[in-house]
Fold this protein.
Amino acid sequence: MTVQIVTTRDALRAALGATRPGLVPTMGALHAGHLSLIARSANENPLTVVSVFVNPTQFSSPADLDRYPRTLKRDATVAGEVGANLIFAPDVSEIYPPGFDTVVEVGALAQRWEGASRPGHFRGVATVVAILLNLVQPARSYFGEKDYQQLQIVRRSHRDLALPGEIVGCPTIRDDDGLAMSSRNTRLSRSDRSRAQAIPRAIDKVRTAAALGEMEAGALERIARAELNRPGIDLDYAAVVAGDSLEPIPRLIPGARILIAANVGGIRLIDNAAIALPETAPE
């Protein structure tokens, strides 16, 4: 499918007309996880917009921003192959015009975990998502569960600010070695990628222990930390939390999740998964 690329707000509005499309917000460097979102949108909407915008307000390190891959031509090709109709690839000044001085702050959901380790990150996420949703006016917007805290923050700001359309969370897509798909994975050396496979292994061990009857969050967190206590892995957190509030919990509850963040070879990787209650919970 031929994909139209637009770079300005006016061109975006002209291309959309009165259509309420599906929207897949991305920072480009598209991988199979992104493509699964695009394919779902194409199946559920008359037109699909993919935004490709490396958002500077999400980065605390200028060097990290500079290193982020920019592959617009390839992104347009692969997005079109799975059903995208329109790529919105604005310059920074198109999203944040001169004199821009308004931000979206999310409260408690943004304080822990990635919010604590990456100050200002979720302010940047919430602000750019609000701008994109207002510009595109989508019927549905698609976000992956791999960035679970981000998904919850998007849901909260979408609800609180009465932003347009529906937020659709989609399952994490994993590579053959179990690693969650991420644009950052391309920066891992072969040896670091092998080390990083401890992250999905830790998640599997936590879920297995829960299925066998372990209900104590602390015990499950120790299982994860033991798997991740390896040379070359700098663990930030491995936390069992409530799936809606992301607050720590003492024991498993319906909707609980394991959240993990670690630096491997200087690359920050995050992952998460739901933890099902055992079929017969102990008394």
User: Anything to note?
Assistant: The chain has two domains: 4-170, 183-273. Residues 183-273 form a domain with the Pantoate--beta-alanine Ligase; Chain: A,domain 2 fold (CATH 3.30.1300.10). The first strand starts at residue 4 and ends at 6. The chain has a mean pLDDT of 95.
